[in-house]
Amino acid sequence: MQISSNSSNLKKGDRHQEDSSFLLSSEEQYKNLVANIPGAVYRCSCDCKGDGEPTRTMAFLSEAIQEISGYPSSDFIKGRVRSFASIIHPQDRKNVGDTVQKSAAGKTPYILEYRIVRADGEISWVCEKGRAVCCEADEARTQEGQGEIEGFLSGAVSPVANSLSQVVYLDGVIWDITDRKRAEEDLRNTQHFLNAVLQNLPVSVFIKDAVEQKFIYWNKASENLFGYSSDEVMGNNAADLLEAEQSNYLQAQDLKVFAAGKCVDFPEETIQLPRRGKRILHNKKVPLFDEAGAPKYILGIAQDITESKQTETELLRLAIVAQKTQNGVIITDARGCIEWVNEGFTRISGYGLAEMLGNKLADVLHCPQTEALTIAQLRSALAAGEAFNQEIYNYSKDGKGYWVALSIVPIYQKTRELEGFIAVQTDITDRKQAEATVSESESYYRCIVETASEGVWMFDADSITTFANSRMAEMLGYTVEEMLGRSLFEFIGEEAREIAESYVQRRRQGIRERHDFKFARSDGSYLWAIVSATPMFDDKGEFSGVLRMITDISDRKQAEAELRHTLQELEFEKFALDQSAIVSNTDEFGVITYVNDQFCEIFKYEREELIGKNHRLVNSGYHQPDFFKQLWSTIRQGNVWRGEMKNQAKDGTLFWLDTTIVPCLNPNGDPHQYVAIRKDITAKKQAEEAVRLSESQLRTKNEELAKALQDVHKTQSMMVQNEKMVSLGQLVAGVAHEINNPVSFIYGNVMHADDYFQDLLKMLQLYQREYPEPTQPIREEIDDIDLNFLLADLPKLLTSMKMGAERIRQIVLSLKNFSRLDEAEQKQVDIHEGIDSTLLILQHRLKETAGHPKITLIKEFGDLPRVQCYAGQLNQVFMNIIGNAIDALEEAMETGQWADGELAPIPCCPSPTLRISTEVKYEQDILMQANSDVSDASLPHPSHIVIRIADNGPGIPPEVHQRLFDPFFTTKEPGKGTGLGLSISYQIVVEKHGGELKCNSAPGRGTEFAIEIPVASSQ
After folding, report:
1. DSSP letter at 992?
2. Half-sphere exposure of 478 (CA within 13 A, CB side)
3. Lowest mean pLDDT: which of 322-326, 354-358, 924-928?
4. Nearest 5°: CA angle at 59, between 55 and 65?
5. Number of continuous H segments (helices) and E segments (strands) in the chain
6. What separation, in Å, do the N-terminal and C-terminal C-alpha atoms of the chain show?
7. 251 membership: H or E segment, kind and range
8. By three-state DSSP, how is residue 643 classified?
9. From 154-163, 228-237, 637-646, the region with the lowest mean pLDDT
10. Residue 570, phi then psi, degrees to nearest 5
11. Which of 373, 522, 988, 997 is a plausible cystine mate for 477, CB 3.0–4.6 Å?
12. Cα separation, 126 vs 110, whole angstroms
């Protein structure tokens, strides 16, 4: 930096003398100026000779350098103590020298940022800004010998370089930027830190732009959750990664978030990921807007809760198990106060949950007969947060005493902070009473044990036999001495070893239970027994062994097996007999082994002629070979086969049998014989044939009617396409004429169909009179087809056909009205009455139904005069347009596409809404007052009335809008519209009344129809 001197204004002739005087008088002033500059101002010479770094020698350096570097400025003047380059950080020194040298060579300013080593050893950042000071050669010699301040303040040199000038000095300023550098470093560290936090968050974090919804950020948790790396995702949107249906849903969800303008929480969403499969996510999405309030980004946070949901299910199952277990379960807080007890606790103690809440476990379990030491141990364990296992004597609610084996374990949080306790108590009263009885009389006990019909078997903690009574040894085929000292597992087969080990583990846990088990006898046979196992513990509470009471149930098991087999055979026979009275049995190869009398009677064979033969003997040849292959395939797999078979008797008579073949399975599950049960359904088949014949005739008639209707539709389509709508009136009249004849044909044939039905009905009634007791097959068929309902419903069906024909006639009448002027007279009517009548007819469609909300009706009626018009035809117009509006609202309920925006006829309405408004249009007439030459402005007179019918449905596309009033044009599904409603309405309003019918609609803006008719008829 260079400070120019005002002395440049002096004349060159006296410059040297006057400059010296001026500088001496202003030296103090400039020193103050330099001292107050924010930085250290310097002037130095620059020796750029050689290939090494340039040497800068300070000619002047302000005192501010001491605050920046810690060294006084005098140390650097002419290198008295140190050079300025010596305090530049070694790593930055070359870059500083190269920049200064390049600037001096090019005579251009330079700006540097580099580090210096302060006097206290600290590293500081400085910014240096300077430029070369150049002058002519003789002026350069003049500068020599001036003092530091004089030389610096001298303005004789010019900062502007030219080809004849040379660099004299470098002027510049240095200021401390350490704080700024630290702030920049802190900002970079913060950015790195935030990015590291986001990358290492356990939840998925992603960011998308608002316009194209492309991903611009994707952390590691997102890669793990969705299965896509950051490189695969960045620059793509959901449609590039997911199925179309899934991506469309997510994009629509993002739009809803922007519409909400705030964080939207989606607690549970199921998504199908191509690489991760089906996952359950908890999503949160936050819209981010720019300063103008426009959507810019969307921040998404997703957490995989699939495992937690599965854990919740498992916890629910565990809760059910805890509630329904036979043992008592108690849950307390960290102080031992009860928070929950299960049904088993209530069953054992008689106390319910409400009575136990808040009580301490030790207080509840304490009773006069409980040992004080046990209670003290319990309280000590709870206070220390330790496990407790002990047997305690309690009193139930009704005052009865009982023994329980109490096991308490502490529950710790992840922080190792005690959360509470879980206590499980098992009722061991029976065991305790047995132990007390044994203690009172050991000899009596041994006598009972030895003479008991049950086996008594005791083991130590390692499952080694310590005692077995004689009955136990007898059941297993050993002597008592042979059993003592042997392991439990020596009396168990390999297939039962695993479950036996699980039982032993449950005994170690203090669980007492009763179960069936199979032991191996000494002769290799098996002993089935009921085992009542009771774990035993010593005085210290350590597991010491198991007492098992063994009851031999081998005979019962064998009897059960035989009974099951017998019941199975009886069940098969009962099933066969219940199905039919015609019974035959065959072996596994199909050879007949048994037939009953009714089988012989219907097939006209003696029993001896059938036994040993197969069923080919009675095969009529009606069925194909594949029929029998499928039959045998079914029954050989052990499945029941049912079907209808046409058989042949010995005399050649053919008849139909409803057949059921049941395979009888051996213990291995393979069929060893087959039972066939049949019933004669020949009469039913004949009746079915008669019914089919009648149905065929009816179908023929119906097909003729349907063909006639089809011909009518074809004729209409051909006329519309060929004539190209040349004359709307001629077209409609021609269609009406062509429909009239087929309708008469249809209506007349419906009458004949009714007569045919009456004839069939008489025939059925005659059958019922002549055969009041039909055979069993006929009765079953009557029940199967619900004959009474058929006879009652068929007349209704024909009536419906008549009503349909009448409906077609009404359409023909509407076509006639559409094609020619209405012959009725015009009358003055109240338009509001017609609208209200129409709404009354359509009231049922406005009400709330299952799956559809109520349609809100808004009536904004003006003060209308009475209008001269064809009232009935206008009502038809109202019916058509209001009905179409309701259809549009019902469509919006299904698709969710509602009108939105200020341009909609019903803006910002959150529910299906129908609005009907009326108003009057006026015209100014000039009335001449009688016998006066002066004219006054008349009062306004009504000219037209306007009825507006609007809805907030999805609106009408432009391509549909163009054909809105074309005859036979409809966008509804077949059968839901004729395409004449709006066309006829247009004719009534425009042609009959000289009015206008306009439609204002666009997709997403709803629809409004405006009906404008004159108050006075112009017809």
Report:
1. I
2. 22
3. 924-928
4. 90
5. 33, 34
6. 98
7. helix 244-260
8. strand
9. 154-163
10. -65, -35
11. 522
12. 14
CA distance 470 to 481: 10
Q: What is the DSSP string of 304-360?
A: E-HHHHHHHHHHHHHHHHHHH-SSEEEEEETTSBEEEE-HHHHHHH---HHHHTT-B
Residue 786, Ramachandran bin (φ over 0: left; ψ between -120 and 50: alpha; else beta): left
Which of 495, 506, 498 is closest to 546 using CA atoms?
506
3-state secondary structure of 138: helix
Query: Which single residue is written with the structure tokens 């305090």?
Result: 87
CA distance 189 to 179: 15
So what's the pLDDT on residue 112?
A: 92
Query: 671-680 and 582-587: which strand pairing?
Result: antiparallel
The encoded tokens of residue 417 equal 């902070």
Rama region for 545: left / alpha / beta (φ>0; ψ in -120 to 50; rest)? left
Q: Each residue of 435-453: pLDDT tens digit?
A: 777 666 555 556 666 666 7
How many Cα atoms occupy the beta-carbon half-sphere of 40 within 13 Å? 28
* Bridge partner list, 289: 295
Comparing CA positions, the residue from 645, 650, 639, 642 lying closest to residue 624 is 645
User: What is d(CA 634, CA 659) in angstroms, rounded to the nearest whole number?
Assistant: 14
Dihedral sign, CA of 927, 931, 935, 936? negative
Tokens 């559809």 belong to 852
By the 10 Å C-beta count (0-12 exposed, 13-18 middle, 19+ buried), 512 is classed as: buried
Distance CA 172, CA 96 (A): 14
DSSP strand pairing (913-923 vs 856-860): parallel
SS3 60: strand
DSSP E strands in 122-276: the ranges are 123-135, 166-176, 204-209, 215-218, 264-273
- Burial annotation 703-742 (CB, 10 A radius, 16+ → b, else e): eebeeebeebeeebeebbeeeeeeebeebbbbbbebbbeb
pLDDT digits (tens, 9 = 90+) for 215-243: 988 988 888 888 898 888 888 888 888 88
At residue 565's C-alpha, the angle toward residues 561 and 571, to 5°, is 140
- In eight-state DSSP terms, residue 214 is -
- Give the three-state DSSP class for 983: helix
CA neighbor of 735 nearest in space, from 745, 721, 749: 721
Q: How many CB atoms lie within 10 A of CB 141?
A: 10
Q: Which amino acid is at 271?
A: I
Helix (H) or strand (E) holding 546: strand 543-552
Measured at the CA of 191, the angle between CA 189 and CA 197, to 5 degrees, comes to 100
Residue 857: how many other CB atoms lie within 10 Å: 14
**Residue 931 — pLDDT band, cuts 50, 70, 90?**
very low
Its sign, for the CA torsion 713, 718, 721, 722, is negative
Residues 6+ apart with CB under 8 A from 714: none
Mean pLDDT of all residues in 668-690? 86
283-289: average pLDDT: 89
Find the length of the chain. 1019
Q: Is 232 buried (19+), middle (13-18) or exposed (0-12) by CB count in 10 A?
A: middle
Please, is 851 exposed, middle or buried when counting C-beta atoms within 10 Å of its C-beta (0-12, 13-18, 19+)?
Answer: exposed
Whole-number pLDDT of residue 876: 81
Token pair of 791 as six digits:
């006879």
d(Cα 298, Cα 261) in Å, to the nearest integer?
11
Q: How far apart are CA 743 and CA 804, in angstroms?
A: 10
